[in-house]
Design a protein that fits this description.
Elements: H1 11-37, H2 41-55, E1 60-65, E2 83-91, E3 94-103, H3 112-171, H4 180-210, E4 219-222, H5 223-241, E5 244-249, E6 255-258, H6 260-276, E7 282-289, E8 299-306, H7 313-316, H8 340-350, E9 354-359, E10 365-372
Parallel strand pairs: 5-7
Antiparallel strand pairs: 1-3, 2-3, 4-6, 7-8, 8-10, 9-10
Length: 378
């Protein structure tokens, strides 16, 4: 009996085999990148099918997605005149779907090499589908949280407005004369009420920003009017803490085109933070002309300076994250929503400007709201 002679591959066959392997590896890399970039289940499923048809040299492919409440897997009615290969999509020891790949009649049936290639696609697809599900669940939860915050804030506005109305009745002495002690308590109540109103406004603004529903209403406004709009809110806070609040405006009649309400909200956040973290000394607001830029645009700088505790370099890196708080033990009693600076930066960007920060621990902080004098309309 003649022993079989070992087969010798020609150079062309070896080159073709290497080419096929390189091509398959490149395709898998493309699949991995495409699946990693997928942000929703529909995109991921389409990518899976496209990749399976390429890797399996198939005419059709489909994915039957499996969820927790799925009783059966239902596929479209394909006329299976050719061959079909089905692969489970497993992630975290759970079946998340089934990949079916079809070849029409007249094409070679699937073999072991096809199964290996498609198995690699199925593994990547299962992980990508799992990631897409997690992302969709997170987005749904985040949207529900934002909606809840907005609803609660709207509901809180009604009783707050009633409290402010009763306070005005008392302050105007419509219900009878007030003693000095009673008037002092009333002033404190109104200060707390304004602070609560600012917190509610921040939450509503955050919800609007996250839902992309916040619009900027531009109009000419004097710098002096903006500062006057802020004073009733911040002066009582500084007085209550026993620190000085100074204002310096180089040109009160200077006009800029902006949204006065949004500018007021940013300045309130910056000044309230400065007062909050300053135990002694001075908090100041200066309005000066900004440095000229290459496009000849004019800028104004609203500079809030304090003599407070300052901010470390580590905290500066996460200062503008939503719901973030400084880690310093001395600030534990100053906890707030953690939204003020995040909202301020977002609003500054919407207004065409920016916020700059200079701070060192123990040396106070300086926050600058830099705004264009005139907005360039798109």
């Amino acid at each position: 009996m003649t022993e079989p002679r070992p087969r010798r591959f020609t150079g062309d066959e070896i080159l073709y085999s290497d080419y096929r392997k390189t091509e398959e590896l490149g395709t898998l890399r493309q699949v991995a990148r495409a699946l990693a970039a997928g942000t929703n289940a529909a995109d991921v499923l389409q990518t899976i099918c496209d990749a399976a048809m390429v890797q399996g040299r198939a005419s059709d492919a489909l994915v039957a997605e499996v969820s927790a409440d799925t009783d059966a897997i239902i596929e479209p009615d394909f006329q299976e005149d050719g061959s079909v290969m089905r692969l489970p999509l497993m992630a975290q020891n759970q079946l998340v779907g089934v990949l079916s790949v079809f070849r029409r009649d007249g094409h070679a049936p699937f073999d072991a090499d096809d199964e290996d290639r498609l198995a690699a696609v199925a593994d990547l697809a299962a992980l990508a589908l799992w990631k897409a599900r997690l992302l969709e669940h997170a987005q749904t939860a985040d949207a529900a949280k934002t909606s809840l915050l907005a609803t609660l804030s709207h509901e809180l506005r009604t009783p707050l407005a009633a409290l402010e109305g009763y306070g005005e009745l008392l302050e105007d002495e419509i219900l009878g004369p007030l003693s000095n002690q009673q008037r002092d308590v009333l002033v404190r109540l109104r200060t707390v009420g304004r602070h609560l109103g600012a917190l509610i406004e921040d939450i509503l603004t955050y919800a609007s920003l996250e839902a992309d529903r916040l619009s900027v209403r531009l109009s000419p406004v004097e710098v002096g009017a903006i500062v006057d709009d802020v004073m009733p809110y911040v002066e009582p806070l500084a007085r209550e803490k026993g620190i000085d609040f100074e204002v310096e405006v180089s040109d009160p009649a200077r006009e800029l085109e902006t949204d006065q309400q949004l500018v007021r909200q940013v300045l309130l956040n910056l000044i309230q933070n400065a007062v909050k973290f300053t135990e002694r000394g001075v908090v100041s607001l200066r309005v000066v002309r900004g440095s000229p830029t290459g496009d000849d645009a004019e800028w104004l700088r609203f500079v809030v300076r304090d003599t407070g505790i300052g901010i470390s370099a580590n905290d500066l890196s996460r200062l503008f994250r939503p719901f973030s708080q400084l880690a310093d033990v001395h600030t534990r009693r100053h906890r707030g929503t953690g939204l003020g600076l995040y909202i301020s930066r977002r609003l500054a960007t919407l207004l065409g400007g920016r916020i700059e920060v200079v701070s060192r621990p123990g040396e106070g902080s300086q926050f600058s709201l830099v705004l264009p004098v005139a907005r360039r309309h798109q």
